[in-house]
């Protein structure tokens, strides 16, 4: 005789554990991704300042920045080779110059002449102003409302940041600030270039890193730029590999795109504008930088300006889907 069990079925142990395991909502996952992205952006600014006291040279940091993503994403990039090859040369040049070797060297050198607060504020803070200038030059019209107010706050914040170095004159800091403005303008060019391509974040990373690594390797091999990678301290190599290669080069672009899809462009941009504040706070214990009165005034103005400049009009938000910038 075969006995049958007619009581309630018992769930497998794995299924029972999965049923009680708490799951994060998409919004919570997006918030975590955005928080990590802001920390990565802050780490970029801190590493730009720390490079001046590192055993690595700018060329070494650039090789790590552009080489590590290529190595990690090699199979995925190979599958996207046709899409990347189909991008118009002018657009590809905007991306490769805007966030590639010229931008990287300008940000690193400008950071060595100023402070982490300058890098973290001027480079991302001035991007909306430069992008608006490019849009006006292309006949897209003048910014209005909260966007115009935000751009004004950014300009006032940058002036407040550098004013104390005008009287008395500090040529080193002013030169560094000027170079950081060039870096910010290049990043704005990169931002405009990204809007012209139909690539996912991985493809955008490849379009940026492949020519940048090739150019940097050529400059090093021909002796145009010196390298100290062979004799650099292991701790410095590990730091820049994690921060620049894996963090900025790989994780920031993927995580920020995910955050925008989960939270929306407006909320992500508003929280992302806190990056300058994070840089100032982290530079105190990590680099020993004490925020000056100019920093305490300029950084909040720039942060508020970036948040306002990235706000979308309500009518636009209701009628359009939010864009997902493919940051890399």
Structure description:
With 328 residues, this protein is mostly helical. The chain has 17 helices and no strands. It has helices at 13-20, 26-50, 58-72, 74-79, 81-85, 89-98, 101-113, 116-125, 127-137, 145-163, 171-194, 201-221, 234-263, 265-272, 275-287, 293-309, 314-319. The longest helix is centred in the last third of the chain and has 30 residues, at 234-263. It is globular and about 45 Å long. The termini are far apart. The relative contact order is 0.20. Mean pLDDT is 85; it is low at 1-6 and 316-328.
By DSSP, the count of extended strands is 0
User: What is the overall shape?
Assistant: globular
Query: Between the first and last Cα atoms, what is the distance in angstroms?
Result: 68 Å
Count, helices: 17
Share of helix, binned? over 70%
Percent of sequence in beta strands: under 5%
Protein topology:
Elements: H1 13-20, H2 26-50, H3 58-72, H4 74-79, H5 81-85, H6 89-98, H7 101-113, H8 116-125, H9 127-137, H10 145-163, H11 171-194, H12 201-221, H13 234-263, H14 265-272, H15 275-287, H16 293-309, H17 314-319
Helix pairs in contact: 2-7, 2-8, 2-13, 2-15, 3-12, 3-13, 6-11, 6-12, 7-11, 8-11, 8-15, 8-16, 9-11, 10-16, 12-13, 13-14, 15-16
Notable traits:
328 residues; 73% helix; mainly alpha; globular; disordered C terminus; disordered N terminus; single chain
């Amino acid at each position: 005789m075969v006995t049958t069990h007619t009581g309630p079925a018992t769930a497998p142990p794995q299924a029972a554990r999965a049923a009680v395991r708490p799951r994060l909502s998409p919004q919570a996952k997006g918030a975590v991704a955005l928080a990590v992205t802001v920390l990565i952006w802050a780490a970029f600014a801190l590493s730009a300042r720390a490079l001046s006291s590192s055993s690595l040279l700018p060329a070494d940091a650039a090789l790590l920045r552009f080489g590590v993503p290529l190595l990690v994403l090699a199979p995925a990039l190979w599958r996207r080779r046709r899409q990347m090859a189909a991008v118009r040369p002018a657009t590809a040049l905007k991306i490769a110059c805007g966030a590639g070797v010229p931008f990287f060297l300008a940000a690193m050198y400008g950071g060595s002449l100023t402070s982490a607060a300058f890098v973290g504020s001027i480079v991302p803070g001035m991007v909306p102003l430069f992008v608006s200038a490019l849009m006006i030059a292309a006949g897209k019209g003048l910014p209005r409302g909260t966007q115009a107010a935000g751009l004004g706050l950014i300009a006032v914040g940058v002036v407040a940041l550098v004013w104390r170095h005008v009287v008395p004159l500090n040529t080193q800091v002013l030169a560094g600030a000027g170079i950081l403005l060039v870096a910010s303008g290049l990043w704005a060019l990169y931002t405009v270039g990204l809007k012209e391509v139909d690539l996912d974040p991985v493809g955008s990373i490849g379009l940026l890193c492949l020519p940048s690594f090739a150019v940097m390797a050529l400059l090093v091999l021909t002796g145009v730029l010196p390298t100290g990678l062979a004799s650099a301290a292991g701790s410095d190599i590990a730091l820049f590999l994690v921060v620049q290669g894996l963090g900025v080069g790989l994780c920031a672009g993927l995580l920020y795109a995910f955050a925008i899809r989960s939270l929306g462009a407006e909320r992500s941009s508003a929280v992302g504008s806190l990056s300058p504040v994070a840089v100032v706070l982290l530079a105190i214990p990590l680099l020993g930088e004490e925020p000056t009165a100019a920093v305490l005034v300029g950084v909040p103005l720039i942060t508020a300006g970036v948040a306002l400049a990235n706000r979308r009009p309500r009518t636009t938000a209701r009628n359009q889907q939010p864009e997902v910038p493919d940051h890399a």
